[in-house]
Amino acid sequence: MNTPTLETERLILRKFTENDLEALFLILKDEEVNKFLPWYPVKDIEETKKFYEERYAAKYAQPQAYAYAICFKEDNCPIGYIKVDMEEHHDFGYALRKEFWHKGIVSEGAKAVVEQVKKDGIPYITATHDKNNPRSGNVMKACGMKYCYTYEEQWQPKDFPVFFRMYQLNFDGNEERVYKKYWNMYSNHFIEKL
């Protein structure tokens, strides 16, 4: 069951492998791509390998994992990633090399991952985006996610305050459920009129 390969019209979504380190490096080293992500851009292949081992190989060892490389069918080479964490928040996240932005690629891949997660019985997913990065929110909306609330966090490891918008999509019919952990954790929280 672990990380089934998915296909869409243009894409193959599959596990990263050790052979993808060069491609993963191109995604992780870009300042703009990683601006809104909770880590600094990697500096070399060594750092990329460590990232791969901690964030991909370790996940693939779990019985259930959703950590996908986004690849075009024609070359099967990773240009981005989509993931859903198995922890309580079921956090949904993604990134894409900037030369492929504005082509609907992440939305196309994300919809396929969301369908798979739903089929596999995960009750809900959440996602957060920096309020200064509304394009990320557009991907969440394209997948059917709904805005729930905004909270301010002193963001680590970058250590500056960020207003995050929290989105959620429930799959089990419980439309009232809202994942409240961030709301309860951070005292500056509110609901925006979007």
Give an overview of the whole structure:
By secondary structure, this protein is an alpha+beta fold. 28% of the residues are buried. The termini are far apart. Helix 1 (21-28) crosses helix 2. 27% of the residues lie in helices and 28% in strands. Strand 7 (146-155) and strand 8 form a beta hairpin.
Measured by DSSP, the beta-strand proportion falls in 25-35%
In terms of per-residue confidence, which ranges show pLDDT below 50 for 5 or more consecutive residues? none
The average pLDDT score comes to 94
Order of helices and strands: EEHHEEEHEHEEHE
Care to count the β-strands?
9
The largest beta-sheet arranges its strands as 1-2-3-4-5
From the N-terminal CA to the C-terminal CA, the straight-line distance is 38 Å
* Rg over C-alpha atoms, rounded to the nearest angstrom: 16 Å
Separate helix tally: 5
Q: How are the SSEs ordered, and which strands pair?
A:
Blueprint: E1 6-7, E2 11-14, H1 21-28, H2 45-60, E3 66-72, E4 78-84, E5 92-96, H3 105-119, E6 124-130, H4 134-142, E7 146-155, E8 160-170, H5 181-185, E9 189-190
Antiparallel strand pairs: 1-2, 2-3, 3-4, 4-5, 6-8, 7-8, 7-9
Helix pairs in contact: 1-2
Q: What does this entry show, briefly?
A:
This protein has 194 residues and is α+β, with helices and mostly antiparallel strands. The chain has helices at residues 21-28, 45-60, 105-119, 134-142, 181-185; strands at residues 6-7, 11-14, 66-72, 78-84, 92-96, 124-130, 146-155, 160-170, 189-190. The chain has a 5-stranded antiparallel β-sheet, sandwiched between helices.
